[in-house]
Amino acid sequence: MRIIGETNIPFLSYRKIALSLSALAIVGGLAYQFLGPGLNLGIDFVGGSQVTLKFRDQPDLGTLRESISDLTVGTPLIQRFDEVEKNEILIRVENPEGAEGDFTRPILELLHQNFNSDLGNRFDLNTQGSLALLGRLVSADPDGMGGDAEARESYYGPMADAVLEYRKTNGIFGSLDELSNVEALSESARTYLENNTAVGAFSLLGAESVGPAVGADLQKKAMLAIGFSLVGMLVYIWIRFKLPYAVGAVAALFHDVLITLTAIAVTHREINLPTVAALLTLVGYSVNDTVVVFDRVRENLRLRRGEELESVMDLSINQTLSRTFITSGTTLVVVLSLYIFGGDVINTFAFVLLIGILVGTYSSIFVASPVALAMNRVLVSRRERRRLRGRR
C-alpha cells in the first residue's frame, strides 16, 4: 500500500540546515534545563507522598493548595483525576529536604481542618478504616451482645467490613442515609452509626509514599535504563549493519530523547516512572523507523554498486517514505486520541509519545542518515590515508 507516489526528493542536500536546527534546539533545551527552571521531577525521583481523594462536591483547587502549602518545600501538585463530575483529586507533595516517612496523615489532618471543621469529634465514615469502625461498634455494643471483646469483634466485624466495602465501591458516603443500603448492618448498629458518626467532605481512595533515598535510587536506575537501551541499540546495529549506521542511529536516538525532554521541561510536565517508560518506548519506536531506512540502503548498495552513498541514501529514504507516513500517521492518530481523551493520568505519557513520533520521524530522515553518511566518509578517508602511507 502506498499513499505517496514515486518521489525524488534530495533529502541529504538539506542535511546542514537540518542538523544546524537540531543542534540549536538541543543546545537551547539543555540551557533551559540546566540554567532555567529545569526538569520537574516527580515524587518517584525526589521523594514525597501522593494521595487520591474523592469529594462530595466539586472542590476549589486554590483552597486545596492553600490547605497543604505549608507542608511541602515546593508548590504541591494538585490536579483533577478522571472525569470532572467524579470530583476526584490527585495531590502530590514533595518531602522536606532529607526527610523520610509517609506524609499521608499530615495531609489528611490539614484537609480535615479546612474541609471537615464542622464535624467536631464525630467519627468520619469517609476517612476512617474498618478497624477503627470496628472498635467503635465493639465499644458501644448497640446490639447488646455482651460477653468478652473477642466475641463482640467476631459479631461486629462483618458489619464494619460491609460499611467500608460500600465506601470502596461508591468512592464516598454522600450522606448518612446511605447506611440503609448496607444490608449487613443490624437495625441497632445502623441507628447507632447514624446518631454518632458523620460523613466528611472527602474520602481517601489511595495513598503512596516514596522516601528521598528511594527516589534518588530510582532516578539513577531510570538514567541507567535509558543509557543501557542506547548502548544496546548501538551494539545491535553495529553487528547487524556497520559502525557508521550504528553511530547514526544512536545519534538520532539521543536527538529524540533530548528534544522530548526539552518539550517536557518547557511545558512543566512531571517526570515520573511512566514518563521514563514513555521515553523507552520512544527509543524503540524511533530506532525501528531508522532501521527500515538503513535496511533499504544496504539492499540498494548491493543493487547499485559504484553509486555514491549519498544518492543511494536519498533513493532509499524516498522509497520508504510512503511506509514512514503510513506507520507514523496511524500511530499518531492513536496517540493523539489518548492525549485528548485519555484523561490526566496518561496525558503526559501520551504527550511524550506524541512528541517522540514527530521528532523520531524527522530524525530518521534528517539526523540518522546524515550522521551515518558523515561517519562513513570519515572512515573511508582514514582507510585511504592508511593505504597511501602503506605505499610509501
UniProtKB/TrEMBL annotation:
A Pfam short name: SecD_SecF_C
Molecular function terms, GO-annotated: protein-transporting ATPase activity
Claim: Protein transport is one of the keywords in the record: yes
InterPro entries registered for this protein in UniProt: SecD/SecF_arch_bac, SecD/SecF_bac, SecD/SecF_CS, SecD_SecF_C, SecD_SecF_C_bact, SecF_bac
Chief location: membrane
GO cellular component labels: plasma membrane
Protein role: Part of the Sec protein translocase complex. Interacts with the SecYEG preprotein conducting channel. SecDF uses the proton motive force (PMF) to complete protein translocation after the ATP-dependent function of SecA.
Known partners and oligomeric status: Forms a complex with SecD. Part of the essential Sec protein translocation apparatus which comprises SecA, SecYEG and auxiliary proteins SecDF. Other proteins may also be involved.
Protein name (Swiss-Prot/TrEMBL): Protein-export membrane protein SecF
